[in-house]
Write a structure and sequence with these properties.
This protein is mainly β and 278 residues long. It has two domains: 46-52 and 164-272, Beta Barrel (Thrombin, subunit H), CATH 2.40.10.170; 56-158, no CATH class. It is built from three helices and 15 strands. 29% of the residues are buried.
Length: 278
């Protein structure tokens, strides 16, 4: 085996260390003068729906007033969770299974400022263990499910099916006139919504909105025209997100954001999509 001398070894090392690095090709960012094709599609597929419908519900002032309410928890706890007992007051009307609903937020029309409805958040489920008696004025329930800690004052409403109803899965085609509206409220904390978030719209059954309809969120595309000198570009309006209506009241609707290429905020314009398919 040939042996290298010490001088040859250091010569090779120095050559490797001080050799010129390979040339690096630097690319300048390209300026976009036209809008990109929309990422959101107007065609929705029911297999893309989450396993369970979102936990938001419409509340009425009358339902809130008449519904049973949590009054106390076992062992003087301030909060309740799964497998604990809770005590409630109010009329049960021979119902034994209830959803625990928190009176969450108001739905306000971003255009008129009108109150369109109240949004509740389903945070748990309870089952009746012992109804109130003359000697015990409170009903005893067992918490069977909770996604948040229950509090005194939370409302009990008859349990709803959490799976998607057939009216959603077998949504009808819509070929009528376009229905225009706006995103009224985001059903989440923060200023923006994205895919799989829920938004409330300022259009409902009174305007022709039905469960199963699809709507597009139309926004002005963000175009970088910083390199343009004299030529001005007209605004480009694009479909930036696709919404799927799963619950409707007279003046408002809840919709799930199925696809989005940009964030959604309150006040964004929406319009019904003219055709739907499975």
């Amino acid at each position: 085996m040939k042996k290298f001398s010490t001088a040859a070894f250091f010569f090779l090392m120095s050559s490797a260390l001080y050799a010129d690095p390979p040339a690096i090709q630097k690319l300048s960012p390209r300026v976009r003068l036209v809008a990109l094709p929309p990422a959101a599609s107007s065609t929705l597929h029911t297999q893309n729906l989450p396993n369970q419908r979102p936990p938001v519900v419409f509340l009425s002032s009358l339902a809130i007033k008449q519904a049973p309410r949590i009054a106390a928890f076992q062992l003087s706890h301030d909060l309740g969770s799964v497998h604990q007992s809770i005590f409630a007051t109010g009329e049960l009307n021979q119902i034994s299974k209830f959803d625990v609903i928190r009176n969450w937020q108001k739905i306000i029309d971003p255009v008129s400022g009108q109150l369109l409805g109240l949004a509740g958040l389903r945070i748990g489920k309870v089952e009746l263990v012992q109804a109130a008696t003359l000697h015990n004025p409170t009903h005893t329930f067992l918490v069977t499910h909770s996604s948040a800690e229950l509090s005194v004052g939370d409302v009990l409403l008859p349990a709803l099916q959490q799976d998607w109803p057939h009216v959603v899965l077998d949504r009808p085609s819509y070929t009528g006139d376009e229905i225009h509206g706006r995103v009224a409220t985001l059903m989440r904390e923060g200023l923006w919504a994205g895919s799989m978030d829920v938004v409330a719209l300022n259009v409902g059954s009174q305007q022709g909105i039905k469960i199963g309809m699809s709507l597009s969120v139309m926004k002005q595309a963000k175009i970088d025209d910083s390199s343009a000198t004299e030529t001005s570009h007209p605004p480009v309006i694009q479909n930036m997100a696709t919404l799927f209506v799963f619950d409707v009241s007279e003046l408002a609707a809840f919709a799930l954001v199925m696809q989005a290429s940009d964030v959604i905020s309150a006040g964004d314009k929406v319009v019904t999509t003219q055709a739907y398919s499975k």
